[in-house]
Amino acid sequence: MSTENLLGERVPVVHRDPAKISRRNRLLALLFGAAAVAAVAVGLNWFISGRFIEETDNAYVAGNVVPIAAQVAGTAREVLVGNTQYVKAGQPLVRLDDTEARIALGQAQGELIRAVRQARSAQFSNAMYEAAVKARAAELGQAEQALKARSDAAVQVVSGEEYGRARASVAVAQANLDAARSQLASGLAASGSNPIEDDPGVMQAVQQLKLAYERVARTTLVAPVEGAVAQRSVQIGQPVAPGTQLMTVVPVRQLWIEANFKEGQVRNLRIGQPVSVVSDLYGSGMVFHGRIGGLSPGTGSAFSMLPPQNAAGNWIKTVQRVPVVIALDPTELATHPLRIGLSMNVSVDTHQRDGALTSTVNPAGASAPFVSGDETQQADALARKLIQESLVSRH
Predict the structure, then answer these.
(1) Do the beta carbons of residue 49 and residue 276 sit within 8 Å?
(2) What average pLDDT does the chain have?
(3) Which domain range does residue 222 map to?
(4) Which pLDDT score is estimated for 350?
(5) Is there a single domain that holds both residue 88 and residue 221?
(6) Above pLDDT 70, what percent of the chain?
């Protein structure tokens, strides 16, 4: 074939370097080989573990928010804590003016003492009635003996008039005995024969004392749980009514995760499966560990304020999400505290699928134990003390 073109010029022939072609082919082979190995590795990783991992970033920190509300009316005299302050269970938070409550407590103490003395007086009256019954019974016995003596005597010794007077004496003694017995029965019916503590008047006075003591105790609002103070709205001198919320206490060491998984992801979720959680607060360097504590019995939309009306004619199917409760490791929470509402990335290992779908226990989300004061025991002790002092003073 001619190497000259139509113009008669020669075209240079390009000769390819075999070494470069071989090197390029090797590089392409390595590239395709690496891609194939990577694809195989990714496929194996998915087959071995990836297909058992369910992930979602629609997850948030949840926890109990304990409201602190006034139980009695009053004016805030002292506000002892502020927002973000960490408090212990039983620590005083707010003190209301307790002047009227203490006056009512003093009146209740006086009523209890008066009730005890009345009950004690009724017991003494009953003892007097019992003695009167015994005396009337003795008089009746003497009258009957006198009548018997006159009945056995001869007519010449005892006249008919004297015998009649003896019979009248027996009748009068019997009537006096019946009257004394009725008086004793009336006294026992009014006061009973039980101890002073079981007297109805005393029992009612004791209950009134307890109520007054509780009112005094409720003028001091204490933290029912250990946690951090939030949403404090009360100020010194502010009048508050019963039920007015003054602040909240959040138990920051008793938090959990509420993760919203798509309905297609929930099929492999079981109670107790291990969970890895990453928070945007600490980043990927801190991985929290936990376990699934419970699966919601309904989707999030089903429990919303305005549930969807799926019977409408313009219905469009949307993927629903199911809330899943995840219990966290408390030691990790102590070292790396979380806050309610923080975003979390959740990964669940679903290798173990023999767990239950429902739980009979509540490992996460259970309310913290409410710490109440010992006002009832103190009121009982005060009531017993007043009763004993009143009884001693009567001897």
Answers:
(1) no
(2) 80
(3) 69-97+217-247
(4) 85
(5) yes
(6) 80
